[in-house]
Amino acid sequence: MSTTRSRHSHTTIRGSIPSKKSTRRMVHYLGLLQRAYIYLLEYDPLVLHYEEHPFSISYRSGKQIAQYTPDFRVVWKHQRPRLVTCRPRITDLELAAFTAAQLWGQQHDHDVALITEETLSCHPGPPLESRNACRSFVCADSTTHL
Question: How many angstroms separate the first and last alpha carbons of the chain?
């Protein structure tokens, strides 16, 4: 696991995790939130497979064409595929991209999910920073897996 300095002077943790469900042998992550979500995917029996940064979606933002690349595309046993973005919080700029992803999902039979620290913190188990092996968790107010 390595650390880097981002443009905003925050330390970012980068690394990779061996995977049995990814289309690649090693799954790369940027930050603890993505790492925790990867562990959830690896140990969730309803996840068939997943891929990181599967493709980019072009959308219009004002007069410019912008690109949105989801963090993951997850294929489930009994649900529609899902595009997933992991962010501590969503900014106004990212909101336009997330809206574009939702429109794309409607047209291509995919669900779209935003995973935040709050989303993962509603699950029982060890704190986000210390999750080394996770299993499938479902929020009390949710009927689907993350």
Answer: 25
